[in-house]
Amino acid sequence: MGPKLGKVERYLLERIQGDGAIHMTLLDPERVSPEEAAAIAKEAEEAGTSAIMVGGSTLASTEELDAVILAMREGGLSVPIILFPNNVTGISKHADAIWFMSLLNSTDPYFLIGAQVLGAPLVRRLGLEAIPMGYIIIGYGGAAGIIGRAIPIPYEKPEIAAAYAMAAECMGMRFVYLEAGSGAPRPVPETMIATVRRAISIPLVVGGGLRDGESVEKAVRAGADIVVTGTAVEKSHRVGDKIRGFISAIKRGIRARLARA
Ligand code: 1GP
User: In the chain, where are the structural domains located?
Assistant: First the structure.
């Protein structure tokens, strides 16, 4: 008997199965106002993004988080809103689900299990769907790496990333996220994505520094099941066009993957 999956997780798996790979839009309540978030999320949904992730490495205000999610809800969003917490303050009762994550290459037990222990009772009380994920910081790492006290895995050490991902799968986590850090000058390399992809059978999320179609296509071709973009969408004046570009890039990446198989 396998684990009983929640609605959002089943939806994600179905979309990955149907499309080959999917796009998620990340919004940071410290970088966008509730009004901007609502407008971006709506445009992103219409353009084909599969879910909205909400969070940020230095987020401290639950009010800001709630306001952003409520504004999106009022805008009539139908794709799920998934929390991407940096801490226990990243929990909101208005979301559909939470990436229940452990920062596997943190040196600080707080980010491995401490925050999760503090947050789990609230997540349960609110009835939030928890999706277990192993979170691994790569290379640049950005604010997530510093705040999470990670020892980032060097870009040229794919086998170490694969070992972390295998450990995540062996521990029962159902997703693995390779994170180069928001705004990373260089995204997670293709070789690393491909090595991790071969090492695990659970879905692989890749994010950080994916700012154009080419980098998204490469990530998908190498084996990413979910690509996350934050900065590129937040900074765009034409959100719909930007996301449509990413979705086309995903399709090209899938075609290349299939052609190779
Ligand atoms: C950060 O992976 C995400 O947690 C997104 O990064 O802002 O560079 O798209 P970007």
Answer: 7-260
Q: Which of 129, 111, 245, 124 is nearest to 179 (CA)?
A: 111
Which candidate, 235, 241, 144, places its Cα nearest to that of 184? Answer: 144
pLDDT, tens digit, 9 for 90 and up, residues 136-181: 999 999 999 999 999 999 999 999 999 999 999 999 999 999 999 9
Q: What global pTM score does this model have?
A: 0.97
181 CA to centre of ligand 1 in angstroms: 6
Tokens standing for residue 144: 């997530």
Distance in angstroms (rounded) separating the CA atoms of residues 78 and 71? 13
Q: Does domain 7-260 have CATH number 3.20.20.390?
A: yes
| Position in ligand 1 atom list of the atom nearest CA 207 | 2
Sign of the CA dihedral with 250 first, then 251, 256, and 258 last: positive
Please compute the mean of the pLDDT values over residues 109-135 and round it to a whole number: 98
Mutate to test the pocket of ligand 1, among 135, 210, 243 (most ligand atoms within 8 A of CB): 210
